[in-house]
Amino acid sequence: MSATTATSQARDLLGVSALSNRSLRTWLHGLPPVDQVGAEARAAALGTRSIKTTSKAWAIDTAISMIDLTTLEGSDTPGKVRNLCAKALLPDRADPSTPRVAAVCVYNDMVGVAREALGDSGINVAAVSTAFPSGRASLPVKLLDTQDAVAAGADEIDMVIDRGAFLSGDYRTVFDQIAAVKEVCRSNPDRADAHLKVILETGELATYDNVRRASWLAMLAGADFIKTSTGKISPAATLPVVLIMLEAVRDWRALTGAMVGVKPAGGIRTTKDAVKHLVTVNETAGPDWLTPQWFRFGASSLLTDLLLQRQKLRTGAYSGSDYVTED
């Protein structure tokens, strides 16, 4: 069953397409409440799991393959983006066996540069859209923003929800905007549909219950991925939040038969952090999510530590950060 078909069936099953905002609010607030103490205790317990050396080697390579290598600064230049793409193609110049990353994530105006640099490598080009990172723009502007990225060759769109609308209880507006952006992701006839990653900005949602509601709302509207954060707001990705989002995609699959990906972004900097997340993925959603197709890390600085730890496993010596390029 395709994700589009499953989403349509879920809408019909849940009656969302015909619901007013008031009814949608009632439905979302009828989701089981999150046990805050239980979620935090579960995440803490999973975070203490240790893995064997052979498993660590697998975990490092898997985490590298899941990274969205990102530059989202006002000072970005074509040269900086090309350098980032070169690192995506060959993360460790001393070891060509190092896996490539999943995607390079840039602003819209750099999509063409990244597309040309990556060619047919299989590494995706992701573009942040819909007035990233604030989401403060009208829907026509958001749709044009997305259309521009898709036309330039983006394989993935990372959109931000209107947190103001969500926090004021205007769930229908958030739903309609996600659904409209999803339609634009299908608008380039020369390429496959761009995947839609919906950023919840969980650091602004205030409660775990809101994280659960926003996750379900995004999936109901057609998200291919749900993503924690822009990386511009603190706190960004936390393990309890990722746990709750993984529970949501697990339950969505049980309901619809379709899988939705999860992307924690921001604050994940070490190999130990990455391993904690991989363990949480395996124990919560299941091993089917342990691929770049269904789980990503939005954490460019994480790659440096993963490469250093990989070198240590391969050579027995810790080389230090001077031996790994930063861009």
Automatic annotation (TrEMBL):
CC annotations in GO: cytoplasm
One biological process term in Gene Ontology: carbohydrate catabolic process
Biochemical pathway = Carbohydrate degradation; 2-deoxy-D-ribose 1-phosphate degradation; D-glyceraldehyde 3-phosphate and acetaldehyde from 2-deoxy-alpha-D-ribose 1-phosphate: step 2/2
Q: What is the lineage of its organism?
A: Bacteria, Bacillati, Actinomycetota, Actinomycetes, Micrococcales
Q: In its keyword annotation, does this UniProt entry include Lyase?
A: yes
Q: Which domain of life is it from?
A: Bacteria
Query: Which InterPro entries does this entry report, sorted A to Z?
Result: Aldolase_TIM, DeoC, DeoC/FbaB/LacD_aldolase
Is Metal-binding given among the entry's keywords?
A: no
Similarity-based family: Belongs to the DeoC/FbaB aldolase family. DeoC type 2 subfamily.
Reaction(s) this enzyme catalyzes, per UniProt: 2-deoxy-D-ribose 5-phosphate = D-glyceraldehyde 3-phosphate + acetaldehyde
Extract the GO molecular function terms from the UniProt entry.
Answer: deoxyribose-phosphate aldolase activity
Q: Which UniProt keywords apply?
A: Lyase, Schiff base
Query: SUPFAM superfamilies recorded for this chain?
Result: Aldolase (SSF51569)
Matching NCBIfam families, A to Z?
A: deoC
The protein's name: Deoxyribose-phosphate aldolase
- The organism named in the record is Allobranchiibius huperziae
Q: What is its EC number?
A: 4.1.2.4
Q: What is an example of a Pfam family matching this protein?
A: DeoC
